[in-house]
Amino acid sequence: MKVLVVGSGGREHALCWSLSASPLVSELLCAPGSDAIAREAACVPLAIDDLDGIVAFCREQGIELVVPGPELPLVLGLVDRLASAGIKAAGPSAAAARLEGSKAFAKDFCARHGIPTARYRAFRRDDAEAARAYLRAEGAPIVVKADGLAAGKGVTVAATVEEAEAALAQAFGGAFGAAGDRVVIEECLVGEEASLFALVDGQNVLAFGTAQDHKRVGEGDRGPNTGGMGAYAPAPSMTPALTERAMAEIVRPTVAGLLAEGNPYQGVLYAGLMLTERGPQLIEFNVRHGDPECQVLLPRLMTDLGQLLLGVADRALGHMDLRWYPEPALTVVMAAKGYPGAYETGSEIRGLEDAARVPGVTIFHAGTRIEGGRVLAHGGRVLNVTAQGATLAEARDRAYAAIDRIDWPEGFCRRDIGWRALRGSV
Ligand code: AMP
To answer: Which of 11, 41, 166, 409 has the fewest C-beta atoms lying within 10 Å of its C-beta?
Structure first.
């Protein structure tokens, strides 16, 4: 099978790393990929939003399965375009991808199908006065969300009504472009966050593990939000009973609801959960693998990823099962100093080969380029130093042992990834 992965970050590096080991995959390509991904896959210079280019390339090259990494091409309709051309893909249609592409759609969908989530109301820009009135009536803390894709920056968890009003003014003022044409205002949920993943083939659902991530840039989970500074899998708080409850109350009703509405979901469904006193509540859906969560899920996967993703595309998951290695995995993101604000690119990173020799360690590249054998930083989040161990503490120790071998003065990482799960252990 000729497979094309779409994307260029650490998530896509992990997808290519996993798929390159699949006996079903005879040729692996990646658009646009990266210099590091080029070690696993042939890279093709096509942008992720160049749907015409990607479809034409797949036709010419006889690509048999497309694996989209990021949400943007999914929301733009890449899978629909591929389907019209008779090309299989392991990702949702644009209609099903609205679960991530429009928070108002996702909330209304949850309301229609009785899926537990924070109480909310959605407002359009020309209804700003009603939105402000709702904010004041509800009081703080309260959460304000731009409806559309806002590169992870569209959510404000406001501690005061003033902060919430400022977030509302920002969204309606155009800070997120068309993504802020509508805003969802919702109840602030309290609890521990965890992520639950599922593979879905339209009808059948396979639980695809749990993870927790660290979104804030600073230790102790403080400071500005980022795309994610680290993650680990499985999430210890997602006990088998709680996982089954979230599958039964959130994931399976979502899949059944989309099917009933005529928009069957195929792909990875990522449910961001808050574990509240009322039980698991949905914070948000993502319609693809997490980044960096994918980098801790895939090293634990014993079953062939190629076979599973083909099962997603062929609606054949009902005949499949999957198995995990028991060892937990943890990844630490190394970022360029200044991230998530302004940062410089081009600094050299040394010691990666030595770091990768620490037992259990795999290093995924999120934003590097390689010039004459020299690895240079080429993004905000740059490396995902991933390790497995007999325990989560051992995985963490191995990841940081590898990081200590990396010579990159212009980079930084959090030293406390996993702290919530590791409280009480050494
Ligand atoms: P999202 O982009 O929807 O994942 O939101 C980003 C982050 O905001 C989440 O990971 C949560 O930490 C937080 N968040 C979003 N919605 C809520 C909510 N209703 N209550 C509390 N925190 C929330």
So the answer is: 409
Task: Please choose, from the candidates 361, 357, 302, the residue with its C-alpha nearest in 3D space to the C-alpha of residue 326.
Answer: 302
Taking the C-alpha atoms of residue 333 and residue 219, their distance in angstroms, rounded to an integer, is 13
CB 3 within 8 A of CB 312: no
Q: How many CB atoms lie within 10 A of CB 178?
A: 12
User: Mean pLDDT in each 10-residue stretch from start to end of the chain (426 residues)?
Assistant: 98 98 98 98 98 98 98 97 98 98 96 97 94 94 94 89 94 92 96 96 97 95 92 96 97 98 98 97 97 98 98 96 97 97 97 98 98 96 98 98 98 97 76
Instruction: Record the tokens describing residue 407, joined without a space.
Output: 């010579």
Calpha distance 380→83 (Å, rounded): 34
> How far are the Cα atoms of 47, 126, 200, 310, 383 from residue 207, in angstroms, in the given order?
31, 41, 9, 16, 28
274 forms beta bridges with 193, 281
How are beta strands 2-7 and 27-32 bridged, if at all? Answer: parallel
Identify the CA nearest to 11 among candidates 284, 412, 364, 378.
364
pLDDT of residue 152: 75
- In this prediction, residue 225 carries a pLDDT of 87
Which residues lie below 8 Å from residue 30, measured CB to CB, with a gap of 6+?
Answer: 4, 5, 6, 7, 8, 12, 16, 37, 40, 41, 42, 43, 44
- Please give the span between the terminal C-alpha atoms of the chain, in angstroms, as a whole number: 45
Instruction: Look at ligand 1, atom 18, and give the residue with the nearest C-alpha.
Output: 188
325 in Cβ contact with 300 (< 8 Å):
yes
Q: List the one residue out of 256, 260, 295, 254 whose CA is nearest residue 272.
A: 254
Q: How far is it, in rounded angstroms, from Cα 1 to Cα 136?
A: 56
| Sign (positive or negative) of CA dihedral 253, 254, 257, 259 | negative
Q: Which of 284, 286, 287 to mutate to test ligand 1, by most ligand atoms within 8 A of the CB atom?
A: 284
Q: How far is CA 393 from CA 177, 196, 387, in A?
A: 43, 22, 10
**Which of 283, 287, 293, 420 for mutating ligand 1's site (highest number of atoms within 8 Å of CB)?**
283
∠ Cα 205 37 321 (to 5°): 20
Distance (Å, whole) CA 347 – CA 344: 8
DSSP assignment of 319-337, as one string?
G----B-SS-EEEEEEEET
Please tell me if the CB atom of residue 143 comes closer than 6 angstroms to any atom of ligand 1. Answer: yes
> How many Å apart are CA 356 and CA 347, to the nearest integer?
20
